[in-house]
Each structure stands twice: as C-alpha cells, then as structure tokens.
Amino acid sequence: MSEIKFEKPSRVCSLRGDQVYTWYTERLWKLTANLPVFEFEIANFDCFEEDVWFGGAHKPTVNKVLEHYRKIANATFECPIVFSQDGSIFDGVH
User: Regarding beta strands 89-91 and 11-16, do their DSSP bridges make them parallel or antiparallel, or are they unpaired?
Assistant: First the structure.
C-alpha cells in the first residue's frame, strides 16, 4: 500500500448499538499494513442492506448521499478494506 496524505486527518465515526466508535483512517491503515491480504467475495459482504453511513445520527440528505457517491466513484484499491474482529467492514465500504 502506498502512503496516502490527507490535508487533515480523516476521522470516521460509527454507531454500533448505543456505542460510538471513532478512528482515524491513516492510523488504521498503518496499524494494518502488515496484516495478511486475502480475497473475499463481494456477495459475502453483509453491509449492503445496512445503513453504514448515517445510522440515524445524520439525515441522509441528497447532498450527503452525493458525498458518499463521490467517495464510491473515486474509490481505488490503493487503500485497504479493513475488517473488524466480528467480520464487518471497519473501513473501506466506499
């Protein structure tokens, strides 16, 4: 993985149950850089029927949906898809 520079740290928050988790993607990528790479069938992702971006905390306005569309359209495999311990996608849904 090549090093990616951000103008400001990319902070991600996720609501799981009643707990909010926050992490910085650059730090997460550095921590996972030496983990093994493996193939995973796209059809096996559970997140396609889940609200992974809004979680009831934010209103899914047209602008917010377009913001995520832009991230999806610009996504590359330069950044890893990182799974959490429970097998859900920790980072890389876009």
Answer: unpaired
Separation between Cα atoms, residue 94 and residue 45, nearest integer Å: 13
Is the pLDDT confidence value at 6 over 50? Answer: no
pLDDT, tens digit, 9 for 90 and up, residues 17-63: 787 778 788 888 888 889 888 888 878 777 777 777 777 667 888 99
Strand partners, 91: 82
What pLDDT, on the 0 to 100 scale, is given for residue 8? 52
Euclidean distance between CA atoms 16 and 57, whole angstroms: 11
3-class DSSP assignment, residue 31: helix
Where does the chain have alpha helices with state H?
Answer: 25-32, 62-73
| 40 vs 92: CA distance, rounded Å | 13
d(CA 8, CA 71): 16
